[in-house]
Design brief:
Strand content: 15-25%
CATH architecture of the largest domain: Alpha-Beta Barrel
Number of helices: 14
Helix content: 40-55%
Number of strands: 14
Length: 408
C-alpha cells in the first residue's frame, strides 16, 4: 500500500455498524470522497461533513477518503478516521465525541459482579446494544479478542464507545493489554469514566501496583475523583501461587478472576468439562480472594450453546466459593445470575437464623439458638449476607422482618 495511505475498520457481507475507511494524503485538490453506503441518501452529507470537520481539526487540507459504510454510527466513523490520521501523521490530538452526563456514574466497591459480558474491542456492532442485556458488568476487551495490528484503532473505538453508549447501569469495565501497550490503554480510557480495569495475565503484585499507580496519576492529572477498581486475572501457574499477594497488592483491587484457557495452556494440560485439572488453582484463588476480603470470579464457560453445561458449571463454581463468572454471549447472563443468586430454601433458613440472632440480642443473650441447635457467629454472618443479597436482587422485600417468626 502507498505510504501516504492508511486503512482502518472492517467491511464485508457480515459486518454491521462499522465501516472500512481508506485515507490517502495528497499535495493538492482539497478533500475528496468516495462513499459507499446504504444510507447515503439520508446520511451521506452528514458523513462527509463530519469527516471534513475532523480532517480540518487535524490540519489536513488535501486528502482522498474512501468509506465503505455498513451503518456505522458517528462515534465509530470518528474512531476509524482518527486511527487512520494517526497512522499516517503521528498527530496526538484527540477528537472526542460528546459525553452525556447520564452516562457518567460510579459503582460501589462491593457491588455484585455475578455476570461480566466480554465484548471484542474492535467490533462496534456488539457494543451498541450491550446495555440491554442486563449484565452486571460490560467488558470492552482490548486484549485477546483484538489482533495485534488492530490494537491502536480498537483503543480509539473503545474510548469513543465509553463516551457514547448507554450501559444502563452495568459496571463499565475494560480489559487492557499487557506491558506498555496496557499503559497506553489506561491513558486513553481512564478519563472516560471507566469503573473497573481488568489486568490480564497477572503474575505478581508489581503488575497490580504499576497499573494502580498509573491510574492514580491519570485521575490526578485529569482532576477526576471517581473510583476506578481493579480485577487482576490469574492465568498462569506462577499467578496461582502468588494469588494472595496479588489480591492484596493495592486497595483498589475489589475482585480477582481466573482465566482457565491460558492457565491450562501454561500448565500443559487440556481443559476438560469436569475441571479436575484446575481444581487446585480455583480453590487457591477463592481462598486467596476471601482472605484478602475481595470477590473471587470464575472463568468463562466456552460453549455458548450448552445451557445445561453452563448451569452445572455455575453450580460447581458457587459451591467452590466463587461469586461470579465471565460470559462470552448474552444468552449466558440469565443462567449465571440465577445460579449465583440465593435459592429459596437458603433464603428461608437465613431468615430464621437472622430472626433468632436479633431475638437473642434483644434479650441480652450471649448464645444464639435455632430450635435445639446453637448458631455460631460465622453462620449468622453468612445468613446476613444471604439476606442482604436477596434484598438487593429484589428476591426478598426490604420489609421482610414484618413477617411473623413462624412465617419466616
Amino acid at each position: 500500500m502507498d505510504s501516504n495511505c492508511a486503512v482502518t475498520g472492517n467491511s464485508g457481507p457480515r459486518i454491521r455498524s462499522d465501516c472500512r475507511l481508506s485515507l490517502c494524503l495528497k499535495n493538492e485538490g482539497g478533500i475528496t470522497f468516495d462513499l459507499k453506503s446504504k444510507v447515503e441518501t439520508l446520511y451521506g452529507e452528514s458523513i462527509r461533513n463530519l469527516c471534513s470537520e475532523m480532517l480540518g481539526c487535524f490540519g489536513i487540507a488535501n486528502a482522498h477518503l474512501e468509506i465503505d459504510d455498513s451503518g456505522a454510527l458517528p462515534f465509530v466513523i470518528m474512531a476509524r478516521l482518527e486511527a487512520a490520521v494517526k497512522k499516517l501523521t503521528g498527530i496526538r490530538i484527540d477528537f472526542l465525541p460528546d459525553f452525556p452526563e447520564e452516562y457518567k456514574y460510579s459503582t460501589l466497591r462491593d457491588r455484585f459482579r455475578f455476570s461480566r459480558l466480554y465484548l471484542p474491542g474492535n467490533n462496534p456492532s456488539l457494543m451498541i446494544n450491550a446495555g440491554l442485556h442486563s449484565a452486571d458488568g460490560i467488558i470492552l476487551d482490548l486484549e485477546d479478542s483484538v489482533a495485534p495490528v488492530r490494537k491502536d484503532e480498537a483503543r480509539l473505538l473503545v474510548r469513543n464507545a465509553l463516551r457514547q453508549l448507554d450501559f444502563r447501569g452495568a459496571e463499565r469495565m475494560v480489559r487492557i493489554n499487557q506491558g506498555e501497550r496496557g499503559m497506553d490503554d489506561l491513558d486513553a480510557l481512564i478519563p472516560q469514566n471507566v469503573n473497573l480495569v481488568l489486568i490480564p495475565k497477572c503474575e505478581n503484585p508489581e503488575n497490580v501496583r504499576e497499573v494502580a499507580e498509573r491510574i492514580r496519576d491519570i485521575l490526578a492529572e485529569s482532576g477526576l475523583t471517581n473510583p476506578v477498581y481493579l480485577m487482576p486475572i490469574i492465568e498462569s501457574a506462577l499467578g496461582v501461587e502468588l494469588a494472595f499477594d496479588i489480591a492484596r497488592a493495592d486497595e483498589s483491587v475489589v475482585a480477582m478472576a481466573v482465566g482457565l484457557e491460558d492457565l491450562t495452556a501454561d500448565m500443559g494440560v487440556r481443559r476438560t468439562r469436569e475441571g479436575n485439572e484446575t481444581l487446585y488453582a480455583r480453590n487457591r484463588i477463592v481462598n486467596a480472594a476471601k482472605a484478602a476480603g475481595i470477590q473471587p470470579i470464575d472463568s468463562v464457560f466456552p460453549d455458548v450453546a450448552d445451557m445445561e453445561g453452563l448451569r452445572n458449571n455455575v453450580a460447581v463454581s458457587k459451591a467452590l466459593g466463587f461469586e461470579g463468572m465471565g460470559c462470552i454471549h448474552p444468552r449466558q447472563i440469565a443462567v449465571i445470575r440465577q445460579g449465583f443468586a440465593p435459592e429459596t430454601d437458603e433464603i428461608e433458613k437465613s431468615k430464621k437464623i437472622v430472626i433468632a440472632y436479633e431475638d437473642a440480642l434483644s434479650k441480652g443473650l450471649g448464645v444464639v439458638a435455632l430450635g435445639s441447635k446453637m448458631i455460631d457467629p460465622p453462620v449468622v454472618t453468612r445468613a446476613l449476607r444471604t439476606i442482604d443479597l436477596a434484598v438487593k436482587l429484589g428476591i426478598l422485600e426490604p420489609g421482610w422482618r414484618d413477617e411473623s417468626p413462624a412465617e419466616a
